[in-house]
Design brief:
This protein is mainly alpha-helical. It has a domain of about 35 residues. The protein has two helices and no strands. Helix 1 packs antiparallel against helix 2. The radius of gyration is 15 Å and the shape is flat. It starts with about 25 loop residues before the first helix and ends in a 5-residue tail after the last helix. Bound molecules: zinc ion (ZN). Zinc ion binds next to helix 1.
Length: about 60
């Protein structure tokens, strides 16, 4: 049983390294562009959404 009185350090998920879009995938490249634009506008919600989409986008090995 872990000591639940200890503070859990979750950190800020927005500080995590952004996933790199696959340069060979048009969807990921578009998401990367959308993410850059959202960041420029300070729209971190969209930045986070784009990161999730890029991470989850399936590619053949
Ligand atoms: Zn992709």
């Amino acid at each position: 049983m872990p000591d639940l009185t200890e503070a859990v350090q979750l950190g800020n998920p927005l500080d995590l390294v952004d996933p790199v879009p696959d340069a060979d995938c048009a969807v990921c490249v578009a998401l990367g562009g959308q993410r850059a634009e959202a960041r420029r506008l300070g729209d971190m919600t969209t930045v986070s959404d784009c990161n999730v989409e890029i991470r989850r986008h399936p590619h053949r090995p």
